[in-house]
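Need a sequence for this fold. Nothing fancy.
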């Protein structure tokens, strides 16, 4: 069972009638922990930070085993949200977030080649692609997608890249997700279960997320989130200190008067 790629469950027998032995209590969400692929971390409540990722100091967040990003690529189409140009995305400090980990980068249209380039710029090696096949409410493949210049797009791609030597569970899930389309740019919820099975219990980060993206064990960054919520006290202190350092220092309104000798020197200088 230890080497099987499938998840197995064992059903514990119920106590016999009349037995007063208490059943073991399961740990709460805030205190539960899981054995990670490379370390054990506490399973925290969802955390999120409302910010402009282009200007946020990403090294404050620390290191992650899994990073997922859905950048607002400029795909030369009319969209209902703001986009970033190619150079802005390439210049993101993604490489500081991982020493040994996996990056999942959502791409579409012309962004597919840009995404591959960005992965190399950030210091990652491209491994595979995850394909999301879009369906409608009748579970039929979408044939009139909202994107596509020549053919309607019925799928989206997520580039999978690696940095270092992360310890993960391989060959559990396949590279195709079939899931229903919802709001514009919203990705399938099934991807979170896939990433948890891949790297259980480790720190995970999502960039360019929205409120529906927040999940236990994840930190979500984006400018469409509702305020910010940080449970990790050390992370909150680090961000508060950084924000305080960004504030402009007040300038004194008092002009320092020159000494008498300075005034005389200045007078003689002008006189000559």
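Here you go.
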């Amino acid at each position: 069972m230890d080497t099987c790629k499938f998840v197995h469950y064992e059903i514990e027998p119920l106590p016999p009638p009349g037995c007063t032995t208490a059943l073991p209590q399961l740990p709460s969400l805030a205190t539960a922990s899981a054995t990670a692929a490379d370390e054990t971390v506490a399973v925290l409540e969802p955390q999120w930070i409302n910010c402009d990722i282009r200007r946020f100091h990403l090294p404050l967040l620390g290191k992650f085993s899994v990073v997922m990003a859905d950048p607002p690529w400029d795909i030369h189409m009319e969209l209902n949200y703001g986009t970033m140009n190619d150079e802005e995305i390439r210049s993101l400090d993604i490489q500081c977030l991982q020493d040994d980990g996996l990056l999942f980068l959502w791409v579409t249209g012309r962004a597919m080649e840009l995404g591959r380039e960005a992965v190399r710029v950030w210091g990652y090696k491209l491994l595979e692609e995850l394909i999301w096949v879009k369906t409608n409410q009748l579970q039929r493949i979408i044939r009139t997608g909202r994107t596509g210049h020549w053919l309607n797009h019925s799928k989206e791609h997520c580039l999978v890249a690696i940095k270092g030597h992360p310890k993960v569970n391989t060959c559990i899930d396949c590279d195709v997700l079939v899931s229903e389309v919802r709001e514009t740019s919203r990705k399938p919820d099934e991807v979170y279960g896939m990433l948890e099975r891949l790297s259980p219990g480790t720190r995970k980060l999502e960039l360019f997320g929205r409120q529906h993206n927040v999940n236990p064990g994840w930190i979500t960054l984006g400018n469409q989130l509702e305020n910010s919520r940080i449970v990790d006290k050390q992370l909150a202190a680090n961000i508060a200190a950084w924000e305080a350092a960004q504030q402009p220092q007040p300038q004194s309104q008092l002009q320092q008067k020159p000494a008498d000798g300075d005034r005389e020197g200045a007078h003689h200088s002008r006189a000559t």
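For context: The chain has five helices and ten strands.
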